[in-house]
Write a structure and sequence with these properties.
Layout lengths: L11 H10 L6 H11 L9 H12 L8 H8 L4 H59 L1
Keywords: Calcium, Coiled coil, Metal-binding, Repeat
GO molecular function, one term: calcium ion binding
Protein name: EFHD2 protein
Length: 139
């Protein structure tokens, strides 16, 4: 909804607009600190996974009470008395689906890293075998 650039990320200006629309405007420095707190890949913008991290940290009590991220998490909570049970159900189902998608993403990254590690080890073994073969010709 707030990804104006449609690039799959929330940048500083998009976060500024989002916080203003949610009724919790932040200073420029406050916005930078919000991104910095959950920016795992240090690209100065929020991916979907990093956005979900805000809510994980809020649920675990890891956000400071006066931080912009705490305000964002609090503003994004659902009030069953106004939304009703069906609204809460779809809200939580969407959150669960997003967490599952993030978990799948993490699994894909781990598999990719394992494949790279395996390829590096195979390359190392081939180089060692080549050096051994090369040394027999030098004698």
């Amino acid at each position: 909804r707030y990804d104006a650039g449609k690039d799959g990320f929330i940048d500083l200006m998009e976060l500024k607009l989002m916080m203003e629309k949610l009724g919790a405007p932040q200073t420029h420095l406050g916005l930078k600190n919000m991104i910095k707190e959950v920016d795992e890949d240090l690209d100065s913008k929020l991916s979907f996974r990093e956005f979900l991290l805000i809510f994980r940290k809020a649920a675990a009590g890891e956000l400071q009470e006066d931080s912009g991220l705490h305000a964002l998490a609090r503003l994004s909570e659902i009030d069953v008395s106004t939304e009703g049970v069906k609204g809460a159900k779809s809200f939580f189902e969407a959150k669960v689906q997003a967490i599952q998608d993030a978990s799948r993403f993490e699994e894909e990254i781990k598999a990719e890293q394992e494949e790279k590690k395996k390829q590096a080890e195979e390359l190392k073994q081939r180089k060692a075998a080549f050096k051994e073969l090369q040394s027999t010709f030098k004698q």
